[in-house]
Records
---
Amino acid sequence: MAALATQVFLDTYATEGVRPDLAREALQQYSEAAFADRLADPGRRFILAEASGGLVGFAEVATAVTQSPAAGVQGCELIRLYVQPRSQRTGVGSALLSEAEKLATGAGAPCLWLTVWEGNLRALAFYARLGYADVGSSTHALEGRAYGNRVVARRLAHPARTP
């Protein structure tokens, strides 16, 4: 997962070359040790997608209901949905997202929310196509440089409860 995450992160964010802040973020957040810590966290779940015996994507979901950066939007957070570039637009991302929604529904969350870098137009279009609404904005700072994000969310359908 560390190698795939680094690949997707740099492919997505380093559109104008690998700047030092992005390099340090990738090396810290996507190291094997960082993933070992996240995998050990009982409040996080990972969903993996494989093809021909290799990892092509994963989703990371926080299973507790939390407040998003957008006012009034609470639910489970989709922390990451990363798909290897050559596997994008093949249904892998949609399948991972569907499984993430099932996890959030099982946790009783009213919605699944996430932040998307405002420069990632393909991801914003992907989420909009799958029913996610733009509900606000947030920023992510790396070493003093602010990156604007959009907060997107989708209400989840819960099975009818019987008395």
---
Amino acid sequence: MVTAGSRGDGMRRANLALVLRTVHREGPRSRAALTETTGLNRSTIADLVGELQRAGLVVERASEGLGRVGRPSPIVAPDPRVVAVAVNPEVDALDIGAVALDGEIVARERLEQSALLTPERTVELVEATLADWRSGPLAESHVVGVGVAVPGPVRASDGLVREAPHLEWLDAPLSDLMTDATAFPTHVGNDAAHGALAEYLFGAARGAHDVVYLNGGASGIGGAVIIGGALLGGAGGYAGEFGQNRPGIVDPADRRALDGVLEDEVSRTLLLEAVGLDGGDDTALAAALASTVDPSALAEIERQRRILATALANAANVLNPAVIVLGGFLAVLAAHDLDGLDAAVRAQTMPACADDLRLAVAELGADRLLVGAAEAVFEAQLFPTR
């Protein structure tokens, strides 16, 4: 981010961040539209846009103002050469993407894994992939940092992965390891928190200010909460672990794990087994769920949906969100009959909390975690106001 050196530049930094954040999150805008949106005057906008251009963060193009009276205002857009590298380690694969400031995913690779990734191996694979991309799709790009979405609690203060149980990571200094290897600033966070941010800014929760997000992955279920437009972190940054809650199960026959938590009962692994798949991504799982006629598979789908509905109703009663967004295999499970799941949630939710509640599946699909991890980089590296 462009920063000036004098003592009174706090307001200018804030205004630079405001303009850049606006065109990044809302899309290209004319200078005139930026003047209206930000409340800044025309000369200030022109000055700020000029500085952002010189820093290589925005580009300007001629307006298509045909037929309009007067000189058309130039269009300001994020420079697509500015990118963040986004990483999501899981028990079965490592997803790596390069997300441009204009929102395009300019490079992406999924590295299937036959053994559990270690933090060191994760860093090694990212470093090797980046080296290949720097002579290929990122040859003309300016990488501003690395964002990592980890399936487990991450300490907000320093990016220490406190525990990623399915990866068998404990107190892993992933941020330091990644920065040392790549020489880029690294921002590590919980995968569900990143998914929630992506869906809040660009997906199914856009326009809502109070959101509950649950993410279902190969490692289990994570979650995040946005209250009044701000991500709820908690004292250490660990808030939102819905997958570790003890679910309410009315029928004892529905229980699969003695004293199990939600992710033991609502499980991608159990769904895959039910439809006869050894593995595969969420697209394959969705196709299998849609086509199965096996009574035992259909029974497992409905069992998991019953338990999930109760968990979502509990979240709605406690947090009163405007929207609950489901990502990963939870989106697949919900989309099997979204209206039916919505009705089951509402049947267990206080009427007042159900009035304005909307249940949705993640719109960004498989991109949500990479987009969210990249956004954490952009927010820290390009939009700071201090």
